[in-house]
Amino acid sequence: MDAHLEAKYRVLTSRLRPLGRILVAFSGGVDSTFVLKAALEACGAEVLAVTAVSPAVPVREVEEAKALAAFLQARHRLLRTAEMAEPNYVANPVNRCYFCKRELYGRLARLAAAEGYAAVVDGANRDDLSDWRPGRIAAGERAVLSPLVEAGFTKAEIRAASHALGLPTWDKPAMPCLASRFPYGTPITVGGLRRVDRAEAILRQHGFRELRVRHYGEAARIEVAPEELPRLLEPTLREAVTAALQGVGYRTVTVDPEGFRSGKLNAGLVAAGEGPASRPAGAAAGPRG
Fold it and tell me: Quick one: 119 and 234 in the same domain?
């Protein structure tokens, strides 16, 4: 790790150490794995990693979180959340993530209070402050701490530091919840979430790594990394993928010619007055898709 990152990492652990008992909101992604590693270094066995389980969380992500916690020798717990019982979440407004995170952070705060944890921490980083992430408002309401923000870590720095620390997540693609595949205003359903999960699993089986299957009811639109588009568009593979996605319930399957770009469904929010510029000063927000 270079001197600059090492200094930031020391700041991070020094901020975590006085907390003593820490509960980490742990998805198994790049950021939460990095903050869990730092928390374990700072506080050892007093750390508990908690992973949310719901229809919106890909099955493979839960399994990866379990494996990563074991790799880090962290105490780990699965926590079932009930955001699907919240009508405001199901309706899928532009601030859907707020209702999801309110449910998650509420449950984590109650768990922390019941079991004597001094703080709940998440993996938000400095880059998140400039994106449309309404879930961050819920974090503020529940006094969830974001030590990576406080230590000044950007996403690129987290990846670089994770690589230096030997964390297998250093180059893991972002994986926001499955609800992010639904255009705003399209109701979230358990059946639709499962269909997206199965469709994306099919694409991974064909070797695609960075991808999304956007859900438009009976229609699916595939996004893969621009450099992987030519392979997907090869007639034999495209026919196989189309047939497989039709097999999980999509009648129409198309490929986005622009390829994958994180946050694509948020593209019009700033112009509409719903994006970062419309947030209260200092408020950040929830996962992009």
Answer: no
